[in-house]
From TrEMBL:
SUPFAM superfamilies in the cross-refs: Nucleotidyltransferase, Poly A polymerase C-terminal region-like
Pfam families found in the cross-reference section: PolyA_pol, PolyA_pol_RNAbd
RNA-binding recorded as keyword: yes
Listed name of the protein: CCA-adding enzyme
GO biological process: RNA repair; tRNA 3'-terminal CCA addition
Superkingdom in the source lineage: Bacteria
Residues holding Mg(2+): 21, 23
Enzyme class per UniProt: transferase
Requisite cofactors: Mg(2+)
Binding site residues for ATP: 8, 11, 91, 137, 140
Residue intervals of the Poly A polymerase head domain: 4-122
Recorded family membership: Belongs to the tRNA nucleotidyltransferase/poly(A) polymerase family. Bacterial CCA-adding enzyme type 2 subfamily.
Note: A single active site specifically recognizes both ATP and CTP and is responsible for their addition.
C-alpha cells in the first residue's frame, strides 16, 4: 500500500498558498485492506475512506470510463493494479495532477509544475471532455487564479463539449454548487468570462448571457457592468446572497433563474427585493421621511434589517459599476441605514398602547406606529415630516 498527497493541496503548497483540505490517493490496496487498517468507508460511487485519526479522505487509485452523458455517466475501476499515473490521468487539469510522496518527492507525469510556472490552466488528457462539471470547475478556478490563462486547446475542447450537448446534462444542484463557489472567489467576473467564451453561459445562464450588447457602447453594456459589479462585490467581501443578486440584477425577474438552479431561499428573496425596489433606493437621496419609511416597510427592513443592509450593498455595487464611478461615494446607503436605525428605535408596543388608550383600533393602530416611525426618521435626518 502506497499513499500519496494529491490535488489542490499539492498545487496550493507549490503556489505558496494556505492549504486547508488535503486529499490522498492509495495505490495497491483493496477496500478490505483499508478497513482492516481502521479506515472508515464513505464513498458511494467509488471507494473513498476516512483516515482513522485525521479524518482526511483517502481514495483508492482508480480509472474511469464514460458510459453515458452527464456527470454520473461513468464506470469506475479501483483495483490494486491501478497505478498512480493512471489515477492522475483522469484528473481535470495538469496543475491538479501532481502527487507528493511521503518523502516529499513530486510525481508530475503531466507537467503540472511547468503550467504552474507559466500560469496556465490546461486539461490533462482528452478524458476532460467526458465530465461537463469540469467546465464549471475550470471557470471557478479561473476566478480564483485570475492571472492564469486558459490553454487554447483546452478552450477548444470546452467549446466542443458545449456543442455536443454535454453541458445540457448537468443537474441544477451541481451547477449551483460550482457557480456559488465561483461567485465567492476573488474575481468572480473571470468565471463568467470563461463560461461565455466556451458557450456554456448561453446554455446555463441564458438570461445573463443576453446582457452583452444591451445598453451602451461596447465595454459599457449591461454585461460589462455586471462584471464590474460582481468584482466590486468581491472587493467588499459581500456574502453569497449579495453576489447572486449582483448576478441577476438587470437579467429579468430573478425567480425563474433561482428556481431553475434551485438556489437557497435567502439568495432568491434578496434578489427579488432588489429587483422590485432598486430604482426607489437609487432615487432615495431626495426622498422625505414618509417615503423612506414606506420604502423600509415594502422591503420588510424592520423585520429583516440584515437583508436590507445587503440590498443596499448590491445597489452600491451597481451605482459604482458605472464608468468613472468606481470610487465614488454612495450617499443613499448611509442615509437609508440611518433611517432604518431611527425607525427601528420606535417602541411599537408603547405607541400601540397609547393608540388603544385613545380609542384607536385595528388598522388605526398601525397608522399610529407608521407615523411614529416617520417622525423618528424626520428627527434623525432633520428633514421635517414630509
Amino acid at each position: 500500500m502506497q499513499i500519496y498527497e494529491v490535488g489542490g493541496a499539492v498545487r496550493d503548497a507549490l503556489l505558496g498558498l494556505p492549504v486547508n483540505d488535503r486529499d490522498w490517493v492509495v495505490v495497491g490496496a483493496t477496500p478490505e485492506q483499508m478497513m482492516a487498517a481502521g479506515y472508515l468507508p464513505v464513498g458511494k460511487d467509488f471507494p473513498v475512506f476516512l483516515h482513522p485519526d485525521t479524518r482526511e479522505e483517502h481514495a483508492l487509485a482508480r480509472t474511469e470510463r464514460k458510459t453515458a452523458r452527464g456527470y454520473h455517466g461513468f464506470a469506475f475501476q479501483a483495483t490494486p493494479e491501478v497505478t498512480l499515473e493512471e489515477d492522475l490521468a483522469r484528473r481535470d487539469l495538469t496543475i491538479n495532477a501532481i502527487a507528493r510522496a511521503p518523502d516529499g518527492r513530486l510525481i508530475d507525469p503531466y507537467h503540472g509544475q511547468r503550467d504552474l510556472r507559466a500560469r496556465v490552466l490546461r486539461h490533462v488528457t482528452e478524458a476532460f471532455r467526458e465530465d461537463p462539471v469540469r467546465i464549471l470547475r475550470l471557470a471557478r478556478l479561473a476566478a480564483r487564479f485570475h492571472d492564469f490563462s486558459i490553454a487554447p486547446e483546452t478552450l477548444s475542447l470546452m467549446r466542443g463539449m458545449v456543442a455536443d450537448g454535454e453541458v445540457d446534462a448537468l443537474v441544477p444542484e451541481r451547477v449551483w454548487q460550482e457557480l456559488a463557489r465561483g461567485l465567492m472567489e476573488s474575481r468572480p467576473s473571470r468565471m463568467l468570462e470563461v463560461l461565455r467564451a466556451c458557450g456554456a453561459m448561453a446554455r446555463l445562464l441564458p438570461e445573463v448571457d443576453r446582457l452583452w450588447g444591451v445598453g451602451q457602447a461596447a465595454g459599457d453594456d449591461l454585461g460589462s457592468r455586471l462584471l464590474r459589479r460582481l468584482d466590486l462585490s468581491a472587493r467588499l467581501a459581500a456574502p453569497l446572497p449579495v453576489r447572486f443578486a449582483c448576478l441577476t440584477l438587470q437579467a429579468g425577474p430573478p425567480r425563474p433563474m433561482a428556481e431553475r438552479l434551485r438556489v437557497p431561499t435567502e439568495c432568491r428573496d434578496l434578489a427579488e427585493v432588489l429587483a422590485r425596489e432598486q430604482a426607489s433606493i437609487q432615487d432615495s437621496a431626495s426622498a422625505g421621511p414618509a417615503e423612506l419609511v414606506a420604502l423600509l416597510e415594502r422591503c420588510d427592513a424592520l423585520r429583516k434589517p440584515q437583508r436590507f443592509v445587503d440590498v443596499l450593498l448590491v445597489c452600491e455595487c451597481e451605482a459604482r459599476s458605472l464608468p468613472g464611478m468606481q470610487d465614488a461615494p454612495y450617499p443613499q446607503r448611509p442615509r437609508l441605514l440611518a433611517a432604518l436605525e431611527a425607525a427601528r428605535s420606535v417602541d411599537t408596543a408603547r405607541i400601540a398602547a397609547r393608540a388603544q388608550a385613545a380609542g384607536v383600533q385595528g388598522r388605526g393602530v398601525g397608522e399610529w406606529v407608521h407615523q411614529a416611525r416617520v417622525d423618528a426618521v424626520a428627527a434623525r435626518l432633520g428633514n421635517g415630516s414630509s
